[in-house]
Amino acid sequence: MKESRIIKVISLIILPILIASLIVSILSFTQKQEYDEEEYFSSENFVYDYMNNIQMAMNELIYYNGSINESYLEGNMQIFHVPNNYCEIFNTKIKETYFLIIYNNKALTNVKITPDTDTIEEIKTFISKNEKTVNILNGKMQAQSEILQSEGMNHFDGRLSYYSTQYDGLIKYTTTTSEDFQIYTSYKEEFTGDLKEFYNILKEANKFAYINIPLSVIFSILIILYLLISVGYKKGVKGIYLNDFDKVPIEIIFFISIFIGSIPFIPLSAINNDYYAIISLIITSCIIIYVLSVIVLDTVIKRMKSKTLITTSIAGNIILFIIKQVKAIWKKIKNVIDGLIYSSTNVITRELSKLIITMCAGIFIIVLFQDSFITFILIGLLLIFTIYKWVRKAIDLGQIEQRLKEMYEGNNTHKLEQSNFMPEFANMVKYLNDISNGFENAIQDRIKSERLKAELITNVSHDIKTPLTSIINYVDLLKQENIENEKAREYIGILDNKSQRLKNLTEDLIEASKISTGNISLNLEKINIIELINQVTGEFSDRFDKKGLNTIINVKENEINIMADSRHMYRIVENLFSNISKYALENSRVYIDIMKQEKSVIIEIKNISKDKLNISAEELMQRFVRGDKSRTTEGSGLGISIAQNLTELQNGIFNLKLDGDLFKVRLEFNIV
Amino acid sequence: MYNVLVVDDDKEIVKAIEIYLQKEKYKIYKAYDGLQALQQIKENNIHLVILDIMMPNKDGIETLAEIRKDKKIPVIILSAKSEDIDKINGLNIGADDYVTKPFNPIELIARVNALIRRYTEFGSIEEKNNLIKNGDLIIDDELKQVLVNGKEIKLTPTEYNILKFLAQNKGKVFSIEEIYTHVWEDECYAADNIIAVHIRHIREKIEINPKEPKYLKVIWGVGYKIEDVGGNINERK
User: Fold this and answer.
1) Cβ atoms within 10 Å, residue B46
2) Which residues of A touch B223 (CB under 8 A)?
3) pTM to 2 decimal places
4) Pair A469, A583 in one domain
5) ipTM, 2 decimals?
6) What is the pLDDT of residues A595-641, one digit of tens each?
7) Chain A closest CA to B105's CA: distance in Å?
8) pLDDT tens for residues A494-551?
9) What sign for the dihedral angle of Cα A316, A318, A324, A327?
10) Has domain B131-235 been given CATH number 1.10.10.10?
């Protein structure tokens, strides 16, 4: 941390030196005419300066501006004296400059009054003794300087016309021409001592300028870059480090800096012709401005880096406040509009208010701009906007309908993303998703509970089977024992019968639970329903014969094919036939009608019940319900339920009808 | 005297099976879990295993897989699991038969007898020209005689003709009508279940468990066929 601070301080010290040397080097190039004696005295600048000073003296002579020290009369000629330092260039730049200007019967000079120089002639002589003389006599230039000789009169005439324009109201002056003046001047072709020392610095600098300029430019840029990058970082502090100063409003800092920076310029106007004072003042103010700008720039860059420049400035805060207010107002307006359009739960109100707002906007535009081009553009935009909204609405509606269709078809996995829809549909989409979720959860719960139930039944059945095996086997072994006791033999018979029933019951239970949960495989193939009925009646012929049941099959075709699982189909018919063999009235007829329809085949099995059926068909189709409610007869009560479930599993229709003692089962399957 | 190993964790069931099989003159070895069973097989010359699936220590399927590593002895699985997938699984691992609990003792005995006979007899029946052979079902057309597991079966001439026709085309399914026209060489009426009745009778005579027939299979709604069960058990590699 200390090292980086030292580097920073050194950089900050070196930077102004580099910049100063750069400025001096540049000056040494551009101001060569000013500081080089040889160049200066043969340049236009010299002509300009010289003529300007003569002009000022002429001005003094004509208007008496107040610098005149003393005057006296020599004959009818009045001689005026001004202090030696009266003319700026003459006294601060060019060494030993003297002048005598005669205009009508007045004369002005800066030559000191001595006994040797108190007449015009003596002054003329004193002036002409100097190194170089310049005289304007009768409108003609007589100069020992080439450039003055060739250019001097042009400047002089230019000055005169300048003054005549400036003092237009003074008739006396406007008539003045160069021929009205007799001017005697002289000078040394040399700078005054003070300037010479200063100019020598520039002369020296000029020798190194070729190296100094590129070097100081490069180093300055490097140092500035380094300072710009390093500003605001402090070791141990993450991000930009800001102190209290960096939180002071930037405008206050600007104001104070400008105030402090301008203090050194206040005495500047009071100092006249003192080059040392001026230069030292300039240097002081430069240092002050430099320090101030370093401080200001440092905090500005820090604020920019930490993005607090706007928030720490008064103007920025005012702008932010205005933006915030505008936003708040806009939000309020929007809320009012949205409230009108969306908040209403009534779709009709909502749509109507939208229509009215659109129409109002249209009328407003027409009234405001009438039949101008703006109306055309705005109405066009309104139309485009309305169409765009309408198209989007149509797309959203299409998606919702598609989703409803999916739900109707039982697909609940896909969810609608509320953000993809217009705000008008937000509620609709939410309700739809909720319904879909509820639906899906209910289905999943149901599937889960059904599966658990099926598993439970299967497991319990397996557990029952093991002890049942022992019961059946030992009953069988008992039967084989030679038991004399008639009663014991009867009891064993009952045990045998009931244990066999228990065995059938558990098997049916497993089957029924498997079918009802759809936990069963379907192996669809082409099946001839007539062949099946024949096969099953063949299987049951003995049992039917025993009860005197006569089977009558009515069918016209030889072959009616359906797509079904042959084992499940057998199970359906077997269960129905098994019921008939158990519950049908003895010595009655069993009718099996097979009717081919256009697209389906109907199998109708009718028989007369042995007992009075005091139960509805719906109840009979439920699991564990039997025709006789006492449940004394054989059978599990699952036969019809299994048959129904298996039929529906194969896309068939299972119908049961009880009409008095007539027991009628109707199966319908699609034919191939 | 053949040695049968009965494996079941329910001791009463093992006892019951022992009683039945002792009557059939088998010597019974008992085991109550898979590890004991493997031990018994190692120590004794076992000719057949009756194996339960759900047992402690080592279940029936693992035990069977272990046995099959080096032994060809017939194994009957006796399980309360009655799903098709359980049966297929057991048979695939190498069981020769699958009987579900609660079982019919007579059926179990018949299956044991059949397997023992197959396991011990080495093609003792002479090769004849007019012999239709399908596993342990042999039809001798010269003597009009049917043998199942070596036992002669009494069939009526119609039943014999139907069985012969199906056995000659084993593996192929015939509808009632086709069987009718082939056997009677006559036209068939649509609603005629005579063939179906005959088939049931044949099944009851030749099958150990007619409800789960091994040879004469019913394809419901399509027809009947004699299942091609291939050769003798001893031909298995």
Assistant:
1) 21
2) 531
3) 0.49
4) no
5) 0.73
6) 998 889 999 999 998 887 777 777 777 655 555 544 445 566 788 88
7) 7
8) 998 888 888 888 888 888 877 777 777 788 889 999 889 988 988 898 889 999 999 8
9) negative
10) yes
